[in-house]
Design brief:
The protein is an alpha+beta fold. 15% of the residues lie in helices and 26% in strands.
Length: 488
């Protein structure tokens, strides 16, 4: 009976899926373009598929888009004035019930060298090799660390507590690895980076999790340049790895792995998630800026970035409302309903290629993006709101390891994939291009039907599969090196 229900869910998703995800959320709103350190690029949430980690959920929030590897000498520190958060709704009411908050501390060690009869501060990020131990930072001029707190509800009400560190470490904060300056600096960057994976104990429990924050290869695969040039590509052409516009870009990833039981509430197995970043309401430039305080902020924190489902804001929300969406809360998403029921993307494709959009209104998208799908990832008591929803019941829906995942997710019959959460290997671009034109509507491809153009194998041309990602935490690949030479 359960298999039949899951099969019907797959058919529904195939018929209804995803006009909202045709690229990654890089520079998705006018306001956020002036604040790249708090610009969220992608959000992933999936049942961990590393061997031995069944029962855990991995959540990835990527920030700072388009990191050119050779962007020195300052590279890509996080904003110490910002609060970066991962929000979990575990009862369907569109309000955060578990919130992980990250704050960063950047320190200049002011490394100096003798020059003649003077000792002069250097202009470089580092003066020698770094690592492989996380503590081997003597030659690093700028160090970054971060603190994590979690807001949660117990039997006595809501609490906010710092994560308890692994007893093998002495510091009260977590270390963030330096960005990948190059192979001469690090030798083996991945070994160095993995030494920054930390274990913690979750407050109010004896459960443990893992966290990593640092630079990673941008995991999103997309033919971005052509897509935004009026879809200047062959939409039914053969995939090509060279078409990935972001192949040489990095991001800064906040990655946390938590037992699913800590994120759930009662008998509800479906959780919703999204990431936000906030800044002080007012910022003023200092007339005499220093490294620590080039500006100062006052007032309460104001949300300036929001991301759940891929590319809702970038390609669905109208330009006039993009900044508003970034500052909005899921509980207030009724104000954006028309963008979901009457999406503009199919009409744009009609203008560009003469294809016929599926029938309106798209009430099916309301289920996928605002409530979840019956029998798959819809909470029992749900308030419609945009977020990434994940069914954490891995008994009913077994986790698929790397190598067995279908890049088309639920469209390809893999119920652990997008839009039931999102894994690094889910090809949300091709899923969207095919589903937006009605690929699995029963009469797809039939003249006079509801989806006459729905049988074509739409693609952005960028090859995407799970070979681009790792099979263990933190799952995302080694960042692209700024200097591939090994040096002498």
């Amino acid at each position: 009976m359960k298999q039949q229900r899951m099969g019907s869910v797959a058919a529904l998703v195939t018929a209804a899926c995803c006009t909202l995800a045709t690229a990654s959320s890089h520079r998705e709103a006018p306001g956020i373009t002036s604040m790249p350190k708090v610009d969220a690029t992608d959000f992933y949430m999936f049942n961990s598929y590393e061997s031995g980690r069944d029962g855990y959920v991995t959540i990835v929030a990527n920030y700072q888009p388009f990191q050119t590897p050779y962007g020195g000498p300052n590279f890509f520190q996080m904003d110490p004035d910002a609060v970066y958060e991962i929000n979990i709704d575990n009862d369907g009411d569109a309000r955060p019930d578990v919130v992980f908050s990250f704050r960063f501390n950047n320190v200049s060690k002011d490394l100096s060298i003798p020059v003649g009869n003077a000792t002069v501060p250097v202009a470089l990020y580092n003066l020698g090799m770094i690592g492989p131990a996380a503590s081997a930072t003597g030659a690093l001029n700028i160090t970054e660390s971060y603190n994590v707190s979690v807001s949660y509800e117990d039997s006595r009400g809501r609490k906010r507590s710092a994560l308890a560190r692994d007893p093998s470490t002495n510091s009260l904060s977590f270390r963030k690895p330096a960005d990948h300056v190059g192979n001469k600096t690090f030798g083996d960057y991945e070994a160095y980076a993995r030494n920054h994976i930390s274990t913690f104990t979750l407050p109010g429990s004896d459960l443990t999790g893992r966290v990593f924050v640092g630079q990673r290869k941008d995991p999103f695969i997309v033919n971005l340049g052509e897509a935004f040039d009026l879809v200047n590509l062959n939409p039914v052409g053969a995939p090509d790895a060279k078409a990935d516009t972001l192949a040489d870009d990095n991001v800064t990833s906040i990655i946390i792995e938590v037992p699913a039981s800590y994120l759930r509430k009662g008998t509800e197995k479906v959780i919703g998630g999204w990431t936000t970043a906030s800044l002080p309401q007012s910022r003023a430039l200092r007339r005499v800026p220093s490294f620590d305080t080039p500006a100062f902020g006052t007032g309460p924190a104001v949300q300036v970035s929001r991301l759940g489902m891929p590319l809702v804001n970038e390609l669905v929300i109208g330009v006039r409302d993009k900044n508003k969406f970034n500052g909005s809360l899921p509980k207030d998403d009724a104000q954006f309903l028309t963008y979901v029921t009457n999406p503009t993307l199919p009409e744009i494709l009609k203008i560009l290629f003469g294809v016929t959009p599926p029938c309106l209104p798209r009430n099916d998208l309301v289920a996928i993006f605002l409530t979840g799908l019956d029998g798959l990832n819809k909470p029992a008591n749900v308030r419609p709101a945009e977020m990434l929803r994940l069914n954490t019941d891995t008994v009913a829906i077994p986790v698929k390891p790397k190598g067995m995942q279908n890049r088309l997710g639920v469209l390809g019959g893999d119920l652990q994939g997008f839009p039931n959460g999102r894994r690094p290997g889910d090809d949300v671009v091709d899923i969207a291009l095919r589903a937006v034109m009605g690929a699995a509507i029963p009469d797809a491809g039939q003249t006079g039907g509801c989806a006459p153009s729905g049988a074509l194998p739409y693609t952005d041309g960028a090859l995407c599969n799970d070979s681009f990602f790792d099979d263990s935490f933190p799952y995302l690949r080694t960042p692209v090196s700024a200097s591939p030479n090994t040096g002498g």
